[in-house]
Structure formats: C-alpha cells, structure tokens
Write a structure and sequence with these properties.
This protein is an alpha/beta fold and 157 residues long. It folds into two domains: 91 residues, no CATH class; 56 residues, no CATH class. 45% of the residues lie in helices and 9% in strands. A four-stranded parallel β-sheet has the order 1-2-3-4, with helices on one face. The longest helix is centred in the middle third of the chain and has 14 residues. The radius of gyration is 17 Å and the shape is globular. It starts with a helix and ends in a 5-residue tail after the last helix.
C-alpha cells in the first residue's frame, strides 16, 4: 500500500479472495494513509455480509457482488443490501455491463476469446479470464440468480 500511495494512487481495490482479517487490515491501513478502499466483497463474509460494511470500505465495485449473498435475489434482498451499504456509508457501482459479461461467460468463453481488446490485456489477466474463469464453472442455482439480476438490469424492468 505504501508503494501504491508513493506512485500517486488514491484508491486500493480489494478482491473476493481475501480473508476477513486481511480485508480489515487493508481498510485500516488505507484509512491511516487517507486512501479510499473500493472493490469486491470478500467471499469470507458469506455468513455475515453486514460485517463487510466497515468504515473506509468506500465502494462495492460491482452490484453483482450482492448476488453471491442471495439464493433467489428477491426485492427484499435488494432492499437489505441497499440498507447495509447505506448504513456502512458504502457506495455501490452497478456496472451493468459486468452482469451482461458474466451471463455471457456462464454460457461460453467464446465471446471473451473473440474480444479484439483482449490482446491488449496483460498475459496474467488473459490467463485468469480464460483459464481460471470461475463464472464459466458455476452452479445452476448461481446461474439462475445471475440471470435474474441480469433481467432486472434491462430497461423497462
């Protein structure tokens, strides 16, 4: 984090794979350095989503993050998620295009492989997207939840 700040970064992005202790340590260190923390809700909060909304978790990077914490993604779930974010002072970026891409990756990685801009991505990112893509190996229940979220993001919903 010290290096990121020295290079002029104002934000630290957190990812789903973090354990709760590491997530909290990042939030605390970022606060000490007056940096903002944004990103994904760590999967470690599956059983206690409210605990993820701590001071200095400034923004959930993709609204689809909440779909991991709901079996059916009901309106009541959406209201609960919104209340948690509001109470924690955490902004949410919908990133609706992410939901569309996830739906595509669930079906097949062909559209991603054909993306002209893929050649400009770092080889490690390409590897992650094409070889370790967890969306392409999800359960039917999670697929249904994401499909519901995708249909809710379309105009006229």
């Amino acid at each position: 984090m010290r290096d990121a700040q020295a290079e002029g970064y104002e934000f630290i992005k957190v990812y789903s794979e973090l354990d709760t202790a590491t997530f909290r340590a990042i939030l605390e260190e970022a606060a000490l350095r007056r940096m903002k923390t944004v990103g994904h809700i760590p999967d470690a909060f599956q059983k206690d989503l409210a605990a993820a909304f701590q001071p200095n978790f400034g923004m959930v990077a993709h609204a689809e993050e909440f779909s991991k914490h709901s079996a059916d993604f009901t309106e009541a779930d959406a209201l609960r998620f919104a209340q948690l974010a509001r109470q924690g002072g955490t902004w949410v970026t919908p990133t609706l295009t992410t939901i569309r891409w996830i739906a595509s990756e669930i079906r097949s990685l062909d559209e991603l492989r054909a993306l002209p801009a893929l050649k400009y991505m770092h080889p490690l990112i390409q590897q992650k997207w094409l070889k370790a893509n967890h969306y392409n190996r999800i359960s039917p229940q999670r697929m249904r939840t994401i499909s519901i979220a995708w249909s809710c993001s379309k105009p006229g919903w």
